[in-house]
Amino acid sequence: MLTIHLKSAAAFVPEKEWAAQQEKALQALDTLESRTGKGNAFLGWLHLPSSITDGQLAAVQTVAAQLAGRAEIVVVIGIGGSYLGAKAIIEALSHHFASLLPDRRHPLVVFAGQNIGEDYLAELLEALQTRETACIVISKSGTTTEPAIAFRLLKRRLEEQYGKAGAKDRIVAITDASRGALRTLAAQEGYATFVIPDDVGGRFSALTPVGLLPVAVAGFDIAALVAGAAAMSRITSERSVNNPAVQYAAMRHALYAQGKKIEALVNYHPKMHYVTEWWKQLFGESEGKEHKGIFPAGVDFTGDLHSMGQYLQEGERSIFETVVSVGNERSGLTIPADDQDLDRLNFIAGKRISECNRMAEWGTWLAHVEGGIPVIRIELPQLDAYALGGLLYFFEKACGISGYMLGVNPFDQPGVEAYKNNMFALLGKPGYETQTHRIRETLKRLQ
Ligand code: PA5
What we know:
By secondary structure, the protein is α/β, with parallel strands linked by helices. It has helices at residues 7-10, 15-33, 48-51, 54-70, 84-93, 118-128, 145-168, 181-189, 209-217, 222-235, 244-257, 273-287, 308-314, 353-370, 385-406, 417-427, 433-446, and strands at 3-5, 73-77, 108-112, 133-139, 171-175, 192-195, 262-267, 295-300, 319-326, 375-380. The protein is globular. 41% of the residues are buried. Bound molecules: 5-phosphoarabinonic acid. 5-phosphoarabinonic acid is lined by residues 79-82, 139-141, 144, 147, 201-203, 285, 413.
């Protein structure tokens, strides 16, 4: 399980402020657990991990095995919370170069519907041409444009390749229980389906079939993932200032009150990139409301030390960092000695690469703290399904607490509609006629 270290962030916060924010975080935890706060119709995720039954996991495994038996590539279609959880977990647990390995035991999982890239979709269809393919389409509302476009193309491709009946056996839809276009389509076409519970919003759905089915298809241990999350849900339910989710939320707000309005989630492990992307969506969409909220940014170190490192060290002092530090890399690779030593690296010959990375982490930590950046550190013992389940749940819980501390509804996303309305009006969607003229005129003035 993870450990949180706050000492080098606490140094930037007056003691009184820290005590007040801890109290506020405990009250927010009460509001969350008693289900009396804003958006309380969307708290199905709160104790979800411990309520998932063996039967539910087995149902996911069965469908995953069917897809794996029929396809070498499974395209997962979704956007936002309907894709980032699965993407983050699969990337974190996969071999870095999985697509290059011969003799794959599990299908390759690729993603679509998370953009409207014409070339992206065309090149995907091109790449799938001679491959055995299946598709998991995920949309809670069932009406989101990006995945709907991707699915229309994939559906047509699968029907051309396998006929309507064959395609049906290679498509699984994950959507709302009864509403939405995808539910209607799935019922009409006879697709296998899983339900996204009404009370679980997209960005809190990684531990529902939305995340579990793609992860199971990729061959990872969903039972361990859920067990890690369940253990973390018990730890973070405790009404205590030692509760790590309370500590994290309280420290974020203590720093926010000191003018630290940007949080950079930092990793030193390349497999963590999409965990950061998932975290950005979770916190950005949950907290950025009413002209308030900490801006969630992400950096991959050490690579980004050669780009964002300069800004972090010497730019505006409005940033704090949260480092997710992963221990225990497995491969044991060491730096070889070289007789000539032209690159002058013999001083580290024989050392593990992970030790060099660790020293980069400590060196950066010190430079940043001394340069005026508060650093929160979250230590993950190793990168496996259990630890990852715990980490995702930890962030979900901290996000709920933090959103309530901010005074917003962390479980809605009204701001996302603005771009959609403009796009629909510009594309001439029926029902948007009155807006089209105004939007075109405004665009002309601004362009
Ligand atoms: O977190 C959220 O609610 C959003 O990011 C949604 O997941 C995203 O907009 C996709 O929505 P849907 O699943 O309805 O297609």
